Amino acid sequence: MDKKIRIGALISGGGSNLQAIIDACRSSKIEGQVVFVGSDDPDAGGLTKARKNKIPTFVVDYKSIIRNFKKDGGGTLLPNDFDFDELFTKQTFFSDTDDPAKGQFFLFSRAIAEAELLNAMEPYPFDLLVLAGFMRNLTPYFIDRVNIDRTRPRIMNIHPALLPAFAGLDGYGDTFRYGCKVGGCTVHFIDYGEDTGPIIGQRAFQIQPEDTIDSIRIKGLKLEWELYPECIQLFAEGRIKTVRRNFKLTGGKNVTRTVVQIVDS
Ligand code: GRF
Fold first, then answer.
1. 24: buried, middle or exposed (CB in 10 Å: 19+, 13-18, 0-12)?
2. Which of 31, 140, 184, 240 could form a disulfide with 162 if both were Cys (CB 3.0 to 4.6 A apart)?
3. Does ligand 1 come within 6 angstroms of the Cβ of 160?
4. Which domains are seen in the chain, by residue range?
């Protein structure tokens, strides 16, 4: 792409990755600009970082949406185009053997929040949406409305572990507690599962006997601040291609996965 890409960001916390992305845009390591920052938490420190950089912000307060949904079922707030069966079939967070009430609660309450998110994002057209410490799982309701062209995913996430190991909320903690000798971080596209989408880039660090959870978090974050801008720049250069690949698992089962190939510009 010859012009700067427009980057939307969603955050939940301090926004150190957001700051790294803003800095990389400023120094032209990323040919892009951050056009909005949204958060699920009104107290997210990253919102202040965005405002200092004169980037428009908004909040969709997930906690209060979920609380209200528990109280009144939220029927009136459900988006008109919500289709539970379609979403349940697509998502991979819950299986048919899980308590159906759990999947229902999750998909109903998140669709209400996600419709608000989409609404808040509407004034800011964007090419790429980056999740920068956004601690909420997105459902197919949101994903399909952002990935209009299914062959060109455009929601990226950074995860604090070497996926597919240690998906979930505490990647560095889980890596440390498992006794791993190597840890790392992963940038991937979002798909319908938890941290399961096509991997774009990974960076690893050694874990020494004297390391603690805190010290490996510091090592990991330093790598995140390099890796995320690099992957975003690959997107800006049009160098990320996704391809469908068929292969046989040990045991014989055939699977098809979408994988990323980095191509020359
Ligand atoms: C990072 O480790 C990121 O990978 C995870 O949240 C942590 C905090 O990110 N998803 P930030 O400082 O808010 O960018």
1. buried
2. 184
3. yes
4. 5-262 (3.40.50.170)
